[in-house]
Write a structure and sequence with these properties.
Layout: H1 2-23, E1 31-32, E2 42-45, H2 51-60, E3 69-74, E4 77-80, H3 83-89, E5 107-111, E6 114-115, E7 118-125, E8 129-134, E9 141-149, E10 155-160, E11 163-169, E12 175-182, E13 189-194, E14 199-207, E15 219-222, E16 227-233, E17 239-242, E18 245-249, E19 255-261, E20 263-270, E21 277-283, E22 289-292, E23 302-308, E24 317-326, E25 330-338, E26 341-347, E27 350-351, E28 360-365, E29 369-376, E30 382-393, E31 399-410, E32 415-418, E33 426-434, E34 440-447, E35 453-461, E36 466-473, E37 477-485, E38 490-498, E39 502-504, E40 508-511, E41 516-525, E42 531-538, E43 546-552, E44 556-566, E45 575-583, E46 592-600, H4 614-637
Parallel strand pairs: 1-3, 16-22, 40-46
Antiparallel strand pairs: 2-4, 2-5, 3-4, 5-6, 7-14, 7-15, 8-13, 9-12, 9-14, 10-11, 10-13, 16-19, 17-18, 17-20, 20-21, 23-24, 24-29, 25-28, 25-30, 26-27, 26-29, 30-31, 32-33, 33-36, 34-35, 34-37, 37-38, 39-41, 41-44, 42-43, 42-45, 45-46
Length: 638
Amino acid sequence: MVNLIKRYILFLLILMCAVGTVNAYTTYSTDVQGVNGTSEYYVSMNADYTDELLLSGLESAKWGGYTPVVVGYGDNKIYFASENDLARFLLIQDGYSTPAILFSGDFVAYFNNEPKQVTSYYKVVGPYATGNINFTSDPSTVYLLAVCVREALGSSCVQFNGETLLSGSADTWTHNYVNRIVSGDSNGYLSATARAGDRAGLSWIVIGDSELTEGTFATVLYGPPDMGKVSIYTEPETDVYEGSTLLGTTDNGGLLDIQLVIGEHNLKFVKNGYWDVYETVTANFQNNTELFISLSPKTSIFQVSKEFSGNLYPNSVGTLSMDITPVKDAYASKLRVSGVEVNKVYYKSVELPKGSDGYYILGDVSSTQNIEIDFKTPSSWGEKTFTVELSATDIEGTAYNNLETINYEVLELPFLLEMPETFGIGINDITLTDQSGTAYSVLMVLYDSEGTETWSSSTNLLEYCDYTFEVPVDDAGDYTLELNAKSGTVKTYYSIDIIEPVTLITEEITANPGKIATVQFKISNPTSNVKYYTAELTCPFYNESIAKTFSIAPETVDKTVDISFEVPEGLELENYQLSLEIFDPDKTDAIYSGSIVLTISESSLFLASVPGGNTTLILLAAAVLLIAGTFAALRLKK
C-alpha cells in the first residue's frame, strides 16, 4: 500500500511537471548556426554594425513559438536559413506584452536577394472582443504570428479570410503560436476573437504595396524602406545587376526604370560583346535619379563615363567631363574631337596642345584618368551631338579604338534677345524680354580682345517684361558680350567685331585761295540694308559746316566719298585745322570724328589743291622740273 501511494505521488509529480512544461511561457535565443554562411534571405543594416554588435543583438533576442535560424552574419548583413526564418525575424520577439522588433527595424529586408517593401504590424484583441484587420489592396504575401494568452477561462480564435489558423480553450492551453504563410486578395482580412478573460496578440508582416483600411488600429513595428526611382539609359538589352540579383533589362531604346531602396547601390551592367561596367548610384526619395552608362565594345580599350557640368545654352561654353578607365594598359593613347568647336582640352588638369593632325596626345594610360573638353555650343537650341575618338594600343601592339557619340541638349534661353544687325562705335541697344514668366537678375558684361572688362550693367528683369541695355563701344576691335542670368545658371556669349567704318584718306591738304579743295574718306556698309549718312566738314573760316548726305549700297566695303569746298581769299594764317564728322541717322553721336590740316599756298601750280599736302606738291614739282631739264639737255646736244 505504501509503495502504491509512493507510485501515485510520483505519477502526480511527473504529470504536474508535464503540465507545467506545456503551460510555461517559454522563450528562446536566436539559433545562430554559423558566421560565414549566406543565403538569398537577409537583412542589410542601415547603420554600421560590427560583427560583435550583430552577434550581441542576435543573442539578446527572445523568441516565442518560432525561433529564426541564422546561418551567417557580418559586413552589416544577417543571413537566414529560409524565407520563414527571415519572416519570423521581422515579427515581434516574445508575447503580446513586449511588442518589439530586433535592432529597432534599422535595416532593409531582402527576399530572394531583392529588397522588398515590408510592413510589420502588431495588434492586441480582447478580452471580450473581436478585431478585424482589413487590407485596402492586394498584398502579395502575409506572414502571421498569433499569440493567445489565457487570463481567465474562455476561448480564442484567429482566422485569415475565414480560415481558422488558431483556436482553443484556455482550459487546455495558456500560450500557443501559429506561424503561417498565407496569400492575400482584395478582400483579405485577419480576424481575432478573444472570449472571457483571454487576449489575442497578432503580429504580421505584409510584403508588397498594401495598407490597412481606415479605422483599423494597429501598431507599425517596421515600415517599408523608402524607395527611389532610378532611370537607366544605356545600350538596348543590357542586363542590370545588384550583386547576383538581376534588377532588369533595358528595352529596345536602352531604358530601364527600377525602384531601389534609398541610398547607395553598386550596379553591374552586362551586355554580350561589351565590357562589363560597374557604377555606384544613389537612389533619392523625392527626385528621380537618371543614370547614363556608356558601354564599350570589346574592340575598345577604354571604358568611358561622361557627364556635363550644368545646363547648356546657345552661344555658351560647355564642359564635358570624361573618366576613361583602361581595360588593360593602354599605350600611345590620343584623342580627337569632331563635330564641335573645341576651346580647350585638359588632361590631368593640364591643358593639352592640339597637334597638326587634329589629335591631343594622352600617352600611356594604366589607371582611370579624367579628361575635360571645353567646347562652344551652337547658336540654336535643341538636341545636339558630337564625337570623341580615343585610340591606343596594348602591350602587344594590338590597336583599339573608342568612338564615343556625345549627345547633349542646348536649352532655350529664358529671354528673347534683340541685338543690332551690326555693332558700331558709339551706343548699341540690346533689348531682353523675359519668356519664362519669372523674375530674375541679368548681368551684361563687355570684354575686349584681351579679356579686360570694358563695360558692365545689371538689372532685375521682371516676368514677361523687357529691358534695354545701352552698350557703349569707344574703339574698333574684337569684343565678347557675356549675358549672365538666374544666379549664373544661364550664360551665353556673343562675339562682336567692331570695324572702323570710316578711314580718312586726306589727312593734309594744300590749296590756293579762291580754289576748290577736296577732302576724301572711305566708308563701309557691312549690313544687308542701304545705309544713309551725313558728312559734316567744319572749317574755322566758315560760319556753318559744309554738309553732304550720301548713301551706301548693302555689303559695300571702302566706298570713297569726296566733300569739297572753296578756299576763301584773304586768309591770314598759313595753316588751318578742319574737323570731319560722319553721322548715322539711327545714332545720336557721330560714328566718326577726324581732323585735316589745310595749308594755304600762294603758288600758281595747277596742283596746288591736290589732296596730299606740301610733300606731294614738292615731289610733283620736282618731277616736272626734272623732265623739263632732260628735254633741254637733249636739245643742246643737237
